[in-house]
Write a structure and sequence with these properties.
Layout lengths: L1 E6 L11 H6 L3 E6 L1 H9 L5 E4 L1 H7 L5 E13 L4 E5 L9 E3 L5 H14 L5 E3 L4 H7 L2 E5 L7 E4 H9 L3 E9 L7 H8 L5 E5 L12 E5 L4 H16 L16
Parallel strand pairs: 1-2, 1-3, 6-7, 6-8
Antiparallel strand pairs: 3-10, 4-10, 4-12, 5-8, 5-9, 11-12
Helix pairs in contact: 4-6
């Protein structure tokens, strides 16, 4: 039985659309955990492959011989509503930053964007609260899927795209170089939906006459994805979150 680990986040659901069929047939065992826990399971040889963020890959490949399984994957291009920076409606002095998942890759990118674009360098407090509860006591909340009518928000993926002129890679499959099932890539590809992308269009309140923002979530690995991943690893290194820039090693190629 193939053992797989995937972060417990609905943003990855298109990569697992057919999972029930494989679970019921006994072909896979699927663990839905935090990003950090998924990384630890693969490092400890508890699973055969895991869905990694760029940060997981960069830190893990320094201590393990990892390979990227190049399809499917998830990359966020411009406005996608996947990650959100929410500003208090009564914002005067920016002092309190909170998040429900402060260690997640998307939240880390949101934090770095606040520094790059707005000269804000927050220490983020973890809150076990709903988004609405956090916004009542925080100046800025950084979270997943925080778009909602009435909120003052920045879309993290859109901010990244405007800053760097490239899409933001969110996740891709990783395995050990010499310890993997022969048909691992085929099974992982079969788990995903047939969609290659989903277009996201901002839903504007009634009466607004300006053009809505838009973007795409893309689900296939290609040369542009690899370029975006390499750029992201350099970006993380520049901000001293990595001690060195790891190579992107592809299963069957490197």
């Amino acid at each position: 039985m193939l053992k797989l680990a995937v972060p417990n986040n609905p943003v990855y659901d298109e990569l697992l659309l057919n999972k029930d069929k494989f679970i019921q047939s006994g072909e896979i065992n699927l663990y839905r955990l935090s990003e950090c826990e998924c990384s630890a399971l693969l490092l400890g040889n508890k699973v055969d492959a895991a869905l990694f963020t760029p940060m997981d890959y960069a830190k893990g490949i320094l201590v393990a011989d990892y390979r990227v399984i190049p399809d499917p994957a998830l990359i966020s291009e411009s406005y996608t509503e996947a990650g959100t920076i929410i500003l208090s409606k009564e914002l005067k002095n920016v002092k309190i930053f909170t998040s429900d998942f402060p260690d997640d890759f998307m939240i880390t990118i949101g934090k770095l964007i606040l520094g790059e674009r707005y000269n804000l360098f927050p220490e983020i407090e973890k809150k076990h609260q709903t988004i609405d509860e956090m916004t009542k006591t925080s100046d800025i909340v950084i979270t997943w899927n925080g778009e909602k009518e009435g909120r003052i928000t920045l879309d993290i993926s859109e901010e990244w795209f405007d800053l760097n002129e490239t899409a933001l890679p969110l996740a891709f499959w990783v395995c050990k170089a010499e310890q993997h099932f022969e048909n691992l890539p085929e099974i992982i590809a079969s788990l995903a939906s047939d969609k290659t992308e989903i277009k996201i269009i901002e839903q504007l309140p009634a009466g607004k006459d300006f053009a809505p923002r838009d973007g795409r979530l893309l689900f296939r690995w290609n040369d542009n994805f690899e370029h975006a991943l390499e750029f992201t690893l350099h970006f993380l290194y520049y901000h001293q979150l990595l001690n060195e820039i790891p190579a992107v090693k592809i299963l069957g190629r490197d």
